[in-house]
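Human:
If only I could read backbone structure tokens as easily as an amino acid sequence. I am handing you a single protein, as its sequence and its fold in token form. I hope you can help me see how the letters and the tokens relate. Thank you; the sequence and its tokens follow:
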Amino acid sequence: MDIKIEKKKGLRPKHYGYIAISVLLLFAGWKMMFGNTASTFRTEKEKVSIAAVSFGKFDDYITINGAVAPISTIYMDAYEGGRVTEKLIEEGTMVKKGDIILKLENRGLYEQILASENNLALKQNDLRSTKLTFDSRQVEGKKDLVSSKYELQKLKRNYEQNKALFEDELISKEVYLTSKESYELSQKQYDIIKLQTEQDDVLRSTSLNELDADLARMKKTLSMVYERIDHLNVRAPADGQLGFLDAEIGQNIQQGQRIGQINVLTDYKIEATIDEHYIDRVKRDLTAVLERNGKEYQLRLRKVYPEVRSGKFKVDLVFTGEKPETIRAGQSYNIKLQLGASSNAILLPRGSFFQSTGGQWIFVVDASGEVAWKRQIRIGKQNSRYYELIEGLEEGEQVITSGYDSFGDAEKIILK
């Protein structure tokens, strides 16, 4: 006989699962409709820096740090090598141009001078001997020329007399022909001696000129060697301060080796480094201002070095007028370098937020002062106090300018 099974009334265990799922679905729907999905970070208001966006004049300058240096530095390289025998001036001493700083010794150079002097003496003796030979030959040639001319004139008179006598048939033809031939031979001998004398004069002049030129070259070479001896005395190339001196007594110095430098202190320059971000905007002749004890001093950018090292490049600035009375090499100054003309703009105070955002976004505090929202912005130029704001913020809005490293990926900041 079949037994009728009645259904139990009430909730069963599986119903609890259905209920939980329904509640979760309802909660998710409520969050989607009424909640905010933005990630949130909570912090105390006192732990962040808040500043107001303003409108005003934007001065297009950057602040750089520079060190005072001599207007120029002259390096001293050894003209001649040698061993240091005497050190007359120490580092830091003021010197005058031509002052002897070091004395060197070079025995090889001394031997070279002796050899040059011997060669010069031999050349001078050769020149004197050659001149004596030419002078003697010149005298003999002139004597022969005079004798030949005298003989020619005598034979000419005899020939002319015999010719007249022969025409009058007073002498024989043989006597006449003999006197004629003697005269003609004497004429030829005279011409030969004259030509020889002229050639000797030309040869003497040419040879002696060449010998004189050789002698002059040898004297010039010897004087240059003497100059090399003088270069063993290392002298100051200009008035100034001996900056450093890399030489000690007994040390061997090589030719061309750098041994020191002279700092010219007639004026000063300021050497500074600038972030490579500005390399396209920094040009020669830009103006700058140095403030010292409440007084401003004007400078001009004289040189921009093209090489970039560790993200920075180097510049030199010079004073265009008055300079601080107590200025000394090595002092550091903060300098305002003007990059462009001033203009009106929305001004955003500088802050460490820039290191986290790159100036692409910022947290803006709402009217209640208790919540800050992430907002995209665009920044233009910057100086030591402000960023020039191109878009994204309005005058009077409050922003968080302190660092964002602890905020993570939050898009909403709750300020307690």
Summary: Residues 107-167 form the longest helix (61 residues). The radius of gyration is 52 Å.
